[in-house]
Amino acid sequence: MSQPVTQPQASLYIGGRFVEGQGDVLPVMFAFDGSTIATLHEASADQVGQATETAQAAQPAWAALPPVERGRVLQRAAAIIRERNDELSMLETLDTGKPIQETLVADWESGAAALEYFGGLAATLTGQTIPLGRDWAYTIREPLGVCAGIGAWNYPSQIACWKAAPALIMGNSMVFKPSEETPLGALKLAEILTEAGLPDGVFNVVQGRGAVGAALVNDTRVAKVSLTGSVPTGQKVYAAAAEGMRHVTMELGGKSPLIVFDDANIEDAAGAAILANFYSSGQICSNGTRVFLQEGIAQAFLDRLCERIRNIRIGDPRDPDTQFGPIISDAQAAKIRTAIAAGQSDGARMVAGGPGEGAFVPPTVFADATDDMQIAREEIFGPVLTALTFRDEAEVIARANASPYGLAAGVFTRDLARGHRVAARLEAGTCWINAYNLTPVEMPFGGVKLSGVGRENSAAAIEHYSQIKTVYVGMGDVDAPY
Ligand SMILES: NC(=O)c1ccc[n+]([C@@H]2O[C@H](COP(=O)([O-])OP(=O)(O)OC[C@H]3O[C@@H](n4cnc5c(N)ncnc54)[C@H](O)[C@@H]3O)[C@@H](O)[C@H]2O)c1
């Protein structure tokens, strides 16, 4: 596998070409060893304005194309991504620190699936006709204009594609700001979209920390903001977007429950708990970090879980055998260690893992936790599983729902009637029955309560990147009263 060049031509991508940022330096680190793999510059305020202006100028001609032509561009981009998946996945591994065995299957591949899926929806983006007797009305599904996309660092390229694909197929243009921790993938996406035939200026990338994101959100040319990030950032961005009555999609954090009933297949439930807590070193928004175990199987489940994670291969994420990589940054590792220390001082029993050292925090499991402990309430965004026990269905539903978050939830049981009954009552945007953390593009994904607003993926995402114009058609005389 060839090593990618990690230093991009320049930091920003505006109007179909690379442009150097005029703002502060943005070093890009490889989380595994802290080495600098690229040095970028933030966009200046003027450059954010140039990007939105360019996007605004390019949007009408793009929207005027037949939708299937837009679809072809997205599908060509998907094909290019798949051809270059090895190289792009290695770049993603360097940018995020995630094991290559994960990035090869879960990152660009998922991004390509979104481009392919929304490209294929092109011919279905129609309105309705509404009969009204003599008269009638019809609706036109229109783009919103310039959409701002702002990404988190855990799935940077997937997030960029999940936002770009529905926005672009609807005839919007986009200015995307990746997380300052992982700025490289979005630039590759911009290049690939150009190569696939996207007109210049329809997809632009600016780089920077929160202030650059805020400048983008406050730009009057922006019609919609789609953010993937934490709840506190979401609250700020939603409030700022409200000033200009901008549309929003908010994909935010969670503290999702994974419920395992006594009759569950323990092997499958333990596998799901592993995916729901330790994949991507636990840095996944929908993770099922509150694992509710029915009393009868609690010990057997924990024994099997600990046995399965004991031999996990932790190491250099570039090594194809590595299963578990470093944490994205020192700051995030410190945050996770603080949470682990709180778990210990609150009296939970640590049955696996611990604080680790340097960039690595091993898979950590707390048993005998209670709902009021910090580790059971707050999003940690690291490889820390909190196990809680319960007696019956009504109790576990109430406890699972007693959280301000509502991103996702999981239920393991062999009793499928119970599985559906519990899923129906859980306050979560996505529920898995006898599965966890699978997010195919065909199904809507997003949160309720503090976890977000709007949905990504599936045809439902189109609603969030379009608006409806109604046209009333009078077919006869106008009947005025005076
Ligand atoms: N629901 C989902 O789909 C999903 C997916 C991945 C991650 N997440 C969440 O993301 C969080 C982790 O990512 P993170 O640490 O990068 O999140 P973060 O909130 O710190 O940052 C997210 C993005 O927002 C930008 N930003 C920060 N302040 C801003 C402001 N005032 N205005 C505009 N933009 C601003 C950042 O630069 C970054 O690009 C976790 O809470 C996780 O649950 C959610």
UniProtKB/TrEMBL annotation:
Similarity comment: family membership: Belongs to the aldehyde dehydrogenase family.
Keywords: Oxidoreductase
PANTHER family to which the protein is assigned, alphabetical: ALDEHYDE DEHYDROGENASE-RELATED
Gene Ontology molecular functions: oxidoreductase activity, acting on the aldehyde or oxo group of donors, NAD or NADP as acceptor
Protein name: Betaine-aldehyde dehydrogenase
Limits of the Aldehyde dehydrogenase domain: 18-471
Entry annotated with the keyword rRNA processing: no
Domain of life according to the entry: Bacteria
InterPro entries attached to this UniProt entry: Ald_DH/histidinol_DH (IPR016161), Ald_DH_C (IPR016163), Ald_DH_CS_CYS (IPR016160), Ald_DH_CS_GLU (IPR029510), Ald_DH_N (IPR016162), Aldehyde_DH_dom (IPR015590)
Coiled-coil ranges (or none): none
